[in-house]
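Quick question: who can interpret this fold?

. . .
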Amino acid sequence: MIDDQIRAMVLAAGVGSRLQPLSDIVPKPLIQIGGRTIMDHILLLLKKHGITQVVSNTHHLANQVHEHFREIEAKEGIQLKFVYEESLSGVAGGIRKCQDFLKESTACIIMGDALTDIDLTDLYNKHKEAVTKHNCIATVAQMQVKDTTQFGVIVTQGLLDKGSDTPNRIIKFQEKPKPSEALSDWANTGIYFFEPRIYDFIPSEAEAPRYDVAKDLFPKLLAAGEHIQAISIDPKTYWADLGTPAQYLKSVQDITEGRVNLDCLDCIDPSAQIDESACLEGYNEIGAQTQIGKNVVIKDCIIWDKVVIGDNTNLEDCIIGSNSKVAANQTLEKQIIIAETSKSRKF
């Protein structure tokens, strides 16, 4: 368990363009999976490891995020503060706006669009050990991946020098390299522990209106000779960026198969009304008060709250937004449907 004085930031300002039109009506941190929103899962993970003082930056559809968590302190004992960004300023720019809150302690930084069961206590302990031994300013959680073109890649001292006494020390970052150009297959998960002095390296908003962590801050720290370390998380740890429809659907499958070790993972809401003649195949998430008609076949789909699915309809690899109605006698595949904007798209 982490010291309860440690603070955290959940980054929640992004637009989530790859999930449009879903993200046109619901901010990405509030996209539901396993019976809760993504950000619910993150906040409960922080609480599980003893972190209950949290700040979050918001921008896109910010009022929805603020309203959703209005009673979180009373319900969960999590003290959640919001800092609204009028315009997006990059990941480090968002952190800059929250630095007065964060610099009171070592801080955990975590993305608001990741589903993970990472052992934050273990990561924190390894961070503090490196602070003592090497005056480490930041620790990055890394995970081995198959496709480096989708991630920022980390190169550590140990990859180049097997006999190094600081094998975890980061010496270089690569942004989404081709496999032929990648110097490692270890990805930056966007989960960090920062020491308070790190904020001195982030320029003012006037100097840099947009400032990123991986592209701007970390290279600046390396150039200054600061010690940044990468810690490889347990291979059994679950971590996924729910940034695309395909990954969103895949994570529902992973939850159903028991690969995600989190509480509140209920993919079929008990209030859903599913006709006894309907057939649910594969891996599905079905939200509250959704009605599924006669002889419906649903395979590998995500269906949000208060959706009505007409009789004799076949859905496969579809994502249906809340309050939508799917007419009877249809066959749909790889479709996102949103009632509020009457938008739909193939993916």
